[in-house]
Amino acid sequence: MKRREFEKRVKDENLKMEDYDIALDHYYDGYPHYMGCVRKDRKWVIYATNHRDGHAYIIDSYDTEDEAFSDFYQYVLSQIKAETQFGHRKKK
Question: Which of 1, 69, 73, 86: CA 20 to 30 A from 13?
Answer without folding.
Answer: 86
